[in-house]
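Incident log, structure service

09:12 report received: a user says their structure output differs between two submissions of the same chain.
09:20 pulled the input from the user's history:
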Amino acid sequence: MSIRSGLSGAIGSGARRAGSANQMFGYGFGAVYLLVGAAGFLVTSGIGFAATKGNNLIFFDVNPLHNIVHLAVGGLFVGGAVAGVRWARRVNLLVGAVYLLVGLVGLFLVGSEANLIALNHPDNALHLGSALLALLVGVFADRNAVVGNNALEVATARLAERSSTNGVGSAAAVAASDEDLFAAGDVAPRKGRYRCSCNDFAVIVRDGGRFPICPVGKGHHYRYVPPKRSTSTTTRKARSA
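09:34 re-ran on a clean worker, output below:
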């Protein structure tokens, strides 16, 4: 079994199970919305699918369409959390933005014929509160999380380099770090020059240092740039061979 394949299961699954703030939020709010969506069907029998006046579930008015929306939102939250930190963060930001819009528009839909999901003011308060919390967690938490493939690549390169001190695995370390992509906050597997995927920014990082956020824009990745060999050195090696 190779170093890479041996680590992939342990690190990959560990990253997916990590208790990051975005994942915990997704699991928690996802469970709540799934529960509310399922419970809503218990009180909406006999109600039109998109009736503008729903039945009461605790403080909230719901109709069958509203229940389906709750189930879909709960599924998105949980699915993002299961997929990992980055997906959990993306889902939290997406649902937060959509729910912020729904909460604001809902203030004007109560009592109107366009109120297809039977909103009342407690519904709007719940949606606005969920939106603000989801956006806060998505924007401020886990911005420099090292997860998924990035964690695997860093661990692979560092383990291979340790092996090279005993005369084993030096080629694997070079191959891994030459091909890997690293995000801002990732640990550099070795000292050297790394170029950003935007091709407008490069940085020299020491062994064990962390990659900075590219000043050109966020979400970029770095790739190791091997040092150039001079023509004279290459010629001498060819002659000696």
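09:41 both user submissions now match this output. Likely a transient worker issue. Closing.
09:42 reviewer note: The two ends are 34 Å apart (CA to CA). Residues 1-17, 146-161, 163-177 have pLDDT under 50 and may be disordered.
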